[in-house]
Amino acid sequence: MNILIIGPPGVGKGTQAKLIKNELGIIHLSTGEILRKEIENKTKIGIKAKLYIDKGEFIPDLTILEIIQRRLAFSDCSKGYILDGFPRTLPQAIGLDKIITELNQNLDIAISLTADEKVLEKRLIERSLKDKRSDDMPAIIKKRQKIYWKRTAPLLKFYKSKGILKQVNGLGKIHQITINIMNLLK
Ligand code: AMP
Predict the structure, then answer these.
(1) Of the four, 10, 47, 53, 110, which is 20 to 30 A from 151 by CA?
(2) How many other C-beta atoms are found inside a 10 Å radius of the C-beta of residue 155?
(3) How many angstroms separate the alpha carbon of residue 56 from the centre of ligand 1?
(4) Ligand 1 pocket residue status of 64, Cβ below 6 Å
(5) pLDDT at 11
(6) Is the pLDDT of residue 132 over 80?
(7) The domain that contains 73 carries what CATH number?
(8) Residue 22 pLDDT more than 90?
(9) pLDDT at residue 51 in the model
């Protein structure tokens, strides 16, 4: 099963994607995590990505699409995957369609995790104290939220028109949210 999970910063995409991955025995692909690893290893992509991430801005679509195109062609993706944090823009979504068609794959479901923005802002500030992410500072958090509504939220319409969008409340007990998602995958 190939899944993607969409939602505003802090809604718990990463947490849920990891739990779903374990439930289904599929691969979890987080572009944010891939980029943070590239930064840690000081690769060419990492050095470039840091400039955008630290400002709370998106990495250019072509760079992200190249990373995903390479990764989805790995044989471990044949058992299924959950995409987390990608696609984030319409060109990325269109690019993904092209990539998966070329690889003879398809997307089964797009899960939209929803939550109140104020609650998420508080969550992200709390996370910043724990994880020390360079993009979890109040001003950057606000910017990331704004960019989400402008550039990523339109994807909900895109996947709704394809008939694969399902919405799940992202607030509540982590375990219950996972159950709610799993029920949609049956
Ligand atoms: P995340 O861990 O998903 O919150 O991603 C952290 C940061 O990495 C984002 O704020 C962006 O700067 C960058 N990033 C991650 N995924 C993408 C993507 N699909 N497109 C553009 N930038 C991305």
Answers:
(1) 47
(2) 20
(3) 8
(4) yes
(5) 96
(6) no
(7) 3.40.50.300
(8) yes
(9) 96
Q: How many folded domains does the chain comprise?
A: 1
**Which residue range(s) make up the domain with 71?**
2-185
Query: For ligand 1, is residue 123 a contact (CB within 6 Å)?
Result: no
Q: Is 86 helix (H, G, I), strand (E, B) or coil?
A: coil
Q: Which of 28, 36, 53 for a ligand 1 pocket mutation test, highest count of atoms within 8 Å of Cβ?
A: 53
- Pinpoint the alpha helices (H) of the chain: 13-24, 31-40, 44-53, 61-72, 90-102, 117-131, 138-147, 154-161, 174-185
Mean pLDDT for the stretch of residues 89-114: 97
pLDDT digits (tens, 9 = 90+) for 145-156: 999 999 999 999
- Give the nearest ligand 1 atom to 89 CA: 20
Q: Which 3 state secondary structure label does DSSP give 105?
A: coil
Give, to the nearest 10 degrees, the angle between helix 174-185 and helix 13-24.
50
C-alpha 31 – ligand 1 centre gap (Å): 6
Q: What is the pLDDT confidence band of residue 90, given thresholds at 50, 70 and 90?
A: very high
Q: What is the pLDDT of residue 128?
A: 82
Both structure tokens of 121: 């802002």
